[in-house]
Amino acid sequence: MQVESIINFIENWAPPGAAWDKDNVGLQVGSKKSEINNILISLELTEAVLKQAIKKSCNFIFTHHPFLFKPLSRIDTQSDPKGRIIKILLQNDVTVYSAHTNLDFTKNGVSFTLAKQLGLMNIRFLVNQESNQYKLVVFVPEAAAEKVSDAIFSSGGGIIGEYSNCGYRTNGKGSFKGSAESNPKIGEKEKLEYVDEVRLEVLVDCWKLSSVIKNMIVVHPYEEPAFDIYPLKNKNVNYGFGAIGELEQALNQKSFMQSVDKALKAKNLRYSKWKVSSIKRVAVCGGSGMELLNAAINAGADAFVTADIKYHTFEEAEDKILLIDAGHYETEVIVLNQVKKEFEKFIRSKGENIKVYKYSGSTNPVKYF
Ligand SMILES: [Zn+2]
Fold first, then answer.
1. Of the residues 5, 145, 191, 349, which has the maximum number of CB atoms within 10 A of its CB?
2. 102 C-alpha vs ligand 1 centroid, how far in Å?
3. Of 363, 346, 331, nearest to 104 (Cα)?
């Protein structure tokens, strides 16, 4: 299996187009055309992670945090750890790929995994992404409507939540008159023509728009296919920030904190003062989720579990919600189990015999005293 196959699989699950625009997701070092031996997954790429990858014959490393984030002005292979890593990667033909905020913002990504780990049910996004979809409207002769809609759906258009092939059709009459230079598929040049057409409407995520249009044009019978693209303000139900759900049974504060501690193997929980005794609805965000505090309060969450919380944010949360900082590493590292499971399922479905290892050490840069 080539690296490209697993990348296509990841990007179908966590599209780079859904990532934060300043992020650096995708291929970091290496080649999409390499044949994969084994795979190692880790939150970050360090020298210890690379050493383990080579020991286990892994020539594909998946990381959550991008290995290359800031632009490099030099590659010092002696005194800079990044430079040393790049040298070993290239010498050993190892490819590195990162899915960061695209894995945060997708279903069954970082925050959904965290929610599941804490035992939440009915998990949904805390805040949906919005304004990242278009309405594509295509005018097509009735006889070709099926072929054109198939091309749009098979290119990823028309997905709403758990439903695919979502479209809407109205019948009408299209008109056109080709010039002397035209080459109409229906009717004759320089003659006004009326055709029974279908107006086909489909939602398309912005990162899929160009390939949907390209594939639609290939099967559309007209020399000049007529179509409109409308930007939408809609919330995108498939992508969002953080997650929210409910515990099967309400817990008191102490029991809830004990369960968070146990589920995340947290070494240290920092939390805000809170008076209410029972916790049922819980919001989460793996990694830095401080900006979602008000969304969690407005969604009626009793508790919000995230990381990287500042002093004044604890103050803001006081008596409004039980705000818990469970650690950046601790709230994210669990997603590797999900990534491993998804990779293994995909590899099995292709009948391949590639092993997927999770880095056995810790890459947490924070130490606890
Ligand atoms: Zn992170």
1. 145
2. 12
3. 331
